[in-house]
Amino acid sequence: MVGRAATDCLIIGGGLIGMLSAYELVQAGMRVTLLERGRTGQESSWAGGGILSPLYPWRYPDAVSDLARWGQARYQGLAEFLFEQSGIDPEWQPSGLLMLAVADQAAALAWAEHRAVTLERLVDGEIARCDAALPAYSGAALWMPDVAQIRNPRLLSALRKVLEQQGVVFEEQTEVLGFQQQAGRVTAVETTRGVYQASKVVVASGAWSQMLLADIGGAIEIEPVRGQMLLYKGEPGLLKTIVMSYGHYVIPRRDGHVLVGSTVEYVGFDKSTTTTAAEALRQVAQTLLPALTDVEVVQHWAGLRPGSAKGVPYIGEHPDIAGLYVNTGHFRNGVGLGYASAKVLGDIVLERESDFEVSRYAIER
Ligand SMILES: Cc1cc2nc3c(=O)[nH]c(=O)nc-3n(C[C@H](O)[C@H](O)[C@H](O)COP(=O)(O)OP(=O)(O)OC[C@H]3O[C@@H](n4cnc5c(N)ncnc54)[C@H](O)[C@@H]3O)c2cc1C
User: Fold this and answer.
1) Tell me, what's the pLDDT at 3?
2) Which CATH number is 113's domain given?
3) Which candidate, 326, 355, 360, 327, places its Cα nearest to that of 341?
């Protein structure tokens, strides 16, 4: 172990959650080293759609809605700051979210009123008001005009660059294998490239987090949930809004690309793509936006979401090992929840008073 930078905190996992955690801690003056098994930002965080709201948000517990709301109020500012500092535009934009064929509309409207969220019920012809490109739908739809999106790969690149500017040390191709502890405190982690010492360690290893913690107890329950996506290369302006129906969606990017997603598959750590999913997503695309029928599909990929019960992430200190923290299990909403989740982690690590009810995210909740 030669010439390692002294560090106050090791973060395990270079996805969005690990990098946003690093961002939060480095702002508070900590020296942070991030350990990544492969290359940063190549797993679930890269694969995601970047919608900055849970889908059908009224179906989630307050623990999720509170994180989403905090991030929704601040993501634009973060994106602008990262763009300014890095020269990479994460392309934050308020596309709005149109949801068709929603069965529990009354619950949605009640939730929106209770939480003071803008959510409108549109009927038939009113849907064209959201996006003239959409075909005529019969029946009522729900419209959330304030929902924004961000382009994950760009967000990750910008964040990485800014973290480097701020002194975060990145150790890639470094897989964490286990932890060392003394008298109930974490002291170091063992990796494929030797031992790294620190008195604080954050596990932000996405779908692999449970595996990493399996040997030391204090169980968290996270399972990989595969999601497949198709990418169409359309012309700019082809679609303006995010549209959903029966759990599937189309997301317009600024340059005309349209993402179509996604599957929800419990197949273990298998990240392969399937022709069945491609066909199903093509059907979704053509139904939601018939103009896509003649547009070329340029990419098809899969990512492994860190699935957790009700989508509530684990954010907190290990009950038996002081200095060992987790920030993981964001399931379908890690991009939208990640900024607030890093804030909660920062509150806990730095023993700050928190605006959040942190016990709801604890490992032993
Ligand atoms: C198809 C799809 C669509 C999605 N759409 C959206 C969306 O629209 N909006 C939204 O908010 N969310 C969305 N998500 C979910 C979101 O992408 C995830 O919740 C989020 O990216 C999780 O981030 P993470 O950093 O925890 O995980 P990851 O991005 O998977 O990062 C974990 C990292 O840890 C590393 N790692 C693992 N084990 C080790 C180890 N032992 N040592 C070192 N490093 C290790 C991995 O290599 C990886 O880089 C989507 C996900 C998918 C797959």
Assistant:
1) 67
2) 3.30.9.10
3) 327
Q: Strand (E) positions, the chain?
A: 9-12, 32-35, 97-100, 120-123, 140-144, 169-171, 176-182, 185-191, 194-197, 200-203, 223-233, 242-245, 248-252, 257-261, 297-307, 314-317, 324-328
Q: Is residue 64 part of a domain?
A: no
Q: Do 98 and 129 belong together in one domain?
A: yes
As a whole number of angstroms, the distance between CA 302 and CA 153 comes to: 14
**Residues 8-33: pLDDT tens digits?**
999 999 999 999 999 999 999 999 99
Query: Does residue 202 contact residue 18 with C-beta atoms inside 8 Å?
Result: yes
C-alpha 262 to ligand 1 mean position (Å):
15
Number of domains in the chain: 2
DSSP 189-223: EEETTEEEE-SEEEE--GGGHHHHHGGG-S----E
Residue 278 has a pLDDT of 98
Residue nearest to atom 31 of ligand 1 (CA): 15
What pLDDT is attached to residue 236?
A: 93
Are 216 and 169 part of one and the same domain? yes
Q: What contacts 360, CB < 8 A, 6 or more positions away? A: 62, 63, 312
**Looking at 12-26, 77-91, 125-139, 290-304, which range is the least confident one?**
125-139
Q: What does the pLDDT read at residue 322? A: 97
- Relative to the CA of 227, which ligand 1 atom is closest? 1
For ligand 1, mutation pick of 46, 231, 326, 335 (most atoms within 8 Å of CB): 335
Tokens of 50: 């970047």
Q: State if residue 54 touches ligand 1 by the CB under 6 angstroms criterion.
A: no
Q: Which residue puts its alpha carbon closest to atom 41 of ligand 1? A: 176
Structure confidence by residue, pLDDT tens digits, 323-347: 999 999 999 999 999 999 999 999 9
